[in-house]
Amino acid sequence: MGKIVINENGCKGCALCVNACPFSLIRISDRINSQGYYPAELVDPEKRCTSCTLCAITCPDVAIEVYREKKARVEK
Ligand code: SF4
Ligand code: SF4
Fold this sequence. Notes:
There is one protein chain. By secondary structure, the chain is α+β, with helices and mostly antiparallel strands. The chain has one domain (2-68): 2-Layer Sandwich (Alpha-Beta Plaits), CATH 3.30.70.20. The chain is built from two helices and four strands, in the order E-H-E-E-H-E. The strands form two sheets. A two-stranded antiparallel ribbon has the order 1-4. Strands 2-3 form a two-stranded antiparallel sheet. The protein is elongated. The structure holds iron/sulfur cluster (2 copies). Residues 2, 4, 20-21, 23, 25-26, 42, 49-55, 66 line the site of one iron/sulfur cluster.
């Protein structure tokens, strides 16, 4: 399980990350950021992000940070 954080105001809306995600979890939002671009956003209601980092590696503006969430230990 993972998640990404997109620096909205550092994003130019180029959509390279949209195409990079193997699970199609990123889309271009309908908000406008401080630079006048429509930034990317994560849409992952089913928690499918694997922290693969492909989106972050692809971003030319280094606007994506990737986090890996630790699994909660289940006690019986
Ligand atoms: S880290 Fe991988 S799975 Fe998660 S949003 Fe980025 S490309 Fe998609
Ligand atoms: S690749 Fe980077 S700059 Fe381009 S839309 Fe995605 S987050 Fe924004």
